[in-house]
Specification:
1 helix, 11 strands, elongated, mainly beta, 11-stranded antiparallel beta sheet, about 60% strand, about 180 residues
């Protein structure tokens, strides 16, 4: 399609205004990625997912936006940061009705294993948490996992699990204790 001189002159200010945006999009860091997928069903309706990720130093940021065939949109944004002690991860998910769920977790090395903390806050503000300590004793060949899970109403469950290597396999002992609010 050939443009007339008049049309080309009219489009020139728009092209000049868009030039910084186009150049900034072209100069993304080497560790930045973006992907867009569109799927069309047999009825002709389409859904789209846009995923991007970027690594900066010890931090990885990922985001995903999904648009359904009727225009309803949900999104997930996650940030994972490596620290000297371990890893921290924060995820925010926004549903199609605007409700937001947040998941925050961390894992840290210990002398004989690791410690893990996780909290989930739902769209209504209720929070559930879980704390776990995992350790390994090479002398007894025993892996111990102790965790406390607390629900949004304050009720909790404590789990102690020990798995020991034996001559013919493994032996596992698990104890769970519930504590109502």
């Amino acid at each position: 399609m050939k443009l007339s001189n008049r049309t080309a002159r009219a489009m020139l200010p728009v092209a000049i205004a868009l030039l910084p945006i186009v150049l900034s999009a072209m100069s993304t860091p080497a560790d930045a990625r973006e992907r867009q997928v569109t799927r069309t069903g047999p009825n002709g309706m389409s859904a789209q997912r846009l995923t991007s990720r970027e690594r900066t130093g010890d931090t990885l940021t990922r985001s995903r936006t999904t648009t359904g065939p009727r225009g309803n949109t949900s999104s997930t944004n996650a940030t994972t940061t490596r620290t000297d002690a371990g890893v921290n991860r924060n995820v925010t998910h926004t549903g199609v009705k605007g409700g937001e769920t947040q998941v925050n977790s961390s894992i840290a090395r210990t002398d004989d294993g690791y410690a893990k903390e996780k909290s989930i806050t739902g769209p209504n503000g209720n929070t559930a948490t879980r704390s776990s300590d995992v350790s390994y004793d090479p002398t007894t060949k025993t892996l111990e996992r102790d965790s406390v899970t607390t629900g949004p109403k304050g009720n909790s469950v404590t789990t102690n699990a020990a798995t020991t290597r034996t001559e013919d396999g493994y032996q596992r002992e698990v104890t769970r204790t519930s504590a109502p609010k």
